[in-house]
Amino acid sequence: MNQILLVEDDKAIIEALQKYLKSEDFETYTASGQKEAEQVLSGHSPQICLVDLSLEDGDGYGVCEAAKKRNIPVIFLTASGDEMSVVKGLDMGADDYIAKPFRPRELISRIRRVLRQYENTSKMLSLGQHVIVDLEKGQVTKDGEPVELSALEYRLLTVFINNKGILLSRNKLLEDIWDIGGDFVNDNTLTVYIKRIREKIEQNPQNPQIIKTMRGLGYRMD
User: Fold this and answer.
1) What is the pLDDT of residues 175-219, one digit of tens each?
2) CB neighbours of 107 closer than 8 A, spacing ≥ 6?
3) Which of 34, 38, 140, 183 could cross-link with 147 by S-S, CB 3.0 to 4.6 Å?
């Protein structure tokens, strides 16, 4: 089930959209202002955000900026006929907009179109709530800040990414790193590199949630 963050301060619209989105198999988180929306984004990873430009606190532009840092697509909901407001939102990276009042079926169509486009074109991958990997540029960020990885650390991270959800033995990891880089990596070195990666991307390296140790078996990225 796709998750949507609906950022809107009109309770009637929230209630109506929640019911309709649920009937279309979408789970909805809601927020009435920018601060509340940012709190939701810090604890959840919705697949898309529907954002009104006018909010109880802050504005939709701030929410859009926070969502884009997490590589989450944004559709603006706007009652404004001000073309410049729409242009500003699109220039910030918003993926689409729809003017109120809108037809629910049209909104669902736009949501699904944006999700399809994102799945087909995005080279960005979210790891947990805080880490984004840009596979095209070979860059990693955590909470919007660059993470400096050595070449071998990045290669090891991509091995996990390419095998997400799969248990990888230490021997398998050593083989894959050798095949990719041609560098000699022994068992002790592997331990050191995994420790370094965790220190850079995990919120709590002592209790890793991205690269997990499966005791006696190996590692798995969830």
Assistant:
1) 877 644 455 667 888 899 999 999 999 999 999 999 999 999 999
2) 17, 50, 75, 98
3) 140
